[in-house]
Structure of RGMB protein:
Amino acid sequence: LLFISCLGDCKLHTSCGIQKCTTDFVSFTSHLNTALEDFDLEFCKALRAYSVCTYRNSKVCRGNLVYHSAVLGISDLMTQRNCTKTGPTSSTNSEMTQDPCNYSGHTEAREHQRGEKTPPPTYLFCGLFGDPHLRTFKDRFQTCKVEGAWPLIDNKYLSVQVTNVPVVPGSSATATNKITIIFKSYQDCTDQKVYQAMTDDLPAAFVDGTTSGGDENTRSLHIVEKVNGKYIEMHARYIGTTVYIRQLGHYLTLAIRMPQELVMAFEESQDLQLCVNGCPSTERIDPSGHLPLPVMGKLLPWGAASHPQSGYTLETATTKCHEKMLVKDIYFYSCVFDLLTTGDDNFTAAAHSALQDVEALHPSKERWHIFPRSGDDGVGRDSKFFVSLGLLCLILVAYL
């Protein structure tokens, strides 16, 4: 093979690891016999291992002619042997079998190196929707004002910023109309990629026009359009992270799942992260930790004249939300709250979609539903939540 014959020349490029890649490939294939039944299977495994190794060295070997010769040779041989680009690889050690741009592979490699079984990585969930309602990585539920631009996430790997604007004239109620996400450069897996969505502009591509980061074959970072202009997903395999963004009505929602160890990889100066620490107390609409809702089944004590923006009574808002959500959890209550506050039916769809995103991304099924309670956390299971009508009046009048 032409690209194998250049072994000696590789020594001139000490920073390039192509010599080691080629030597391993020769070692994997030297004992193979074309007459054997499993020759093609084993040869393809060796080629895939060779391909992974060259990709790992793509940056440091960029100006190396031997490297480029090897890459072309691998491609030709894979075509000749009908090898798939994905599948098992040959290996004499753990490093060769691990995809450097697959987060789950990183944890397996650490497990192998330590020689002991380690627990699987812990994943965390954060979501923002509606008026706006925030579910933090700690599963705490808050309703906030946060008008303007605010950071949801800001760590070593990822930055997410949202911009919230007023929903109802004369009210402090806000909703999200812009989302900016920065996937930071990471080894050979991806260059920095910036994504930006705005109301009526939910693109299925990054700002630079691309739909993926890094090598297109490895798909370490890519965007998938689910509903044209209304719903996209971003999958970042190299950091084990998934992001959902939707437009419902005039506003955007966001849901994200990310490994805990990466969520916590931030400097002390990056502590203002709504997904990590929640909204500042001065921005909370529910300052005591409780979403302000009346006892279900009774009408609001004021008439349409005292709350003209909504057009909903407690009874009609409850009925509307119950059409989408049968379980009276915090998402149901958020739906009722948003209808009473804004009168915008799209907030019903936003609450319902937010719950669907939780069910798709949250790792713990028993924590999908959050039920309000009167404790300090503002959340709990199997507990009732009642606020006096008089207190509700004072809260909503102050809010509106």
Summary: The longest helix spans residues 39-56. Residues 1-14, 294-308, 374-400 have pLDDT under 50 and may be disordered. DSSP finds eleven helices and twelve strands in the chain.
